[in-house]
């Protein structure tokens, strides 16, 4: 399929699903119903949209973005660059692994990255924050 669409090279990704692609289309309506059951509040700080790499400040835009990012490619590098150009110097990856921390460091080696994959990481982060 990739060759038929004109791809010159194919790099298989080690992910559990076809996230951020048209193959997610069948679940968009169901996911929309799920998020409609949650109460959203305006964010205290802007969220950066993964699809457009632009800030979102209102609840409706955030809900729309959650649906869009299922089906569309995300703009990872522009999102990180937007944040660093606007003063963000620390990034926190929550979950197992350090893939996102590594990608962020490639984009801007000057930023600090932290991985939180368990309770011990939270304790260590709290201790380092209080000692600085």
From TrEMBL:
Keywords: Acyltransferase, Transferase. InterPro entries: Ac_transferase_dom_sf, Acyl_Trfase/lysoPLipase, Mal-CoA-ACP_Trans/PKS_FabD. SUPFAM superfamilies: FabD/lysophospholipase-like. It catalyses: holo-[ACP] + malonyl-CoA = malonyl-[ACP] + CoA. It is an enzyme of class 2 (transferase). Its EC number is 2.3.1.39. Coiled coil: none annotated. PANTHER family: MALONYL-COA-ACYL CARRIER PROTEIN TRANSACYLASE, MITOCHONDRIAL. This is [acyl-carrier-protein] S-malonyltransferase.
């Amino acid at each position: 399929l990739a060759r038929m669409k004109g791809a010159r090279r194919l790099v298989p990704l080690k992910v559990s699903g076809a996230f951020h692609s048209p193959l997610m289309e069948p679940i968009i309506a169901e996911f929309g119903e799920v998020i409609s059951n949650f109460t959203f509040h305006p964010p205290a700080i802007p969220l950066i949209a993964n699809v457009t790499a632009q800030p979102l400040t209102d609840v409706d835009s955030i809900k729309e973005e959650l649906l869009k990012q299922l089906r569309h490619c995300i703009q990872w590098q522009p999102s990180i660059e937007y944040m660093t150009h606007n003063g963000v110097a620390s990034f926190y990856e929550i979950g197992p692994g350090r893939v996102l921390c590594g990608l962020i460091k490639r984009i801007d080696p000057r930023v600090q990255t932290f991985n939180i994959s368990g309770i011990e990481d939270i304790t260590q982060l709290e201790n380092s924050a209080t000692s600085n």
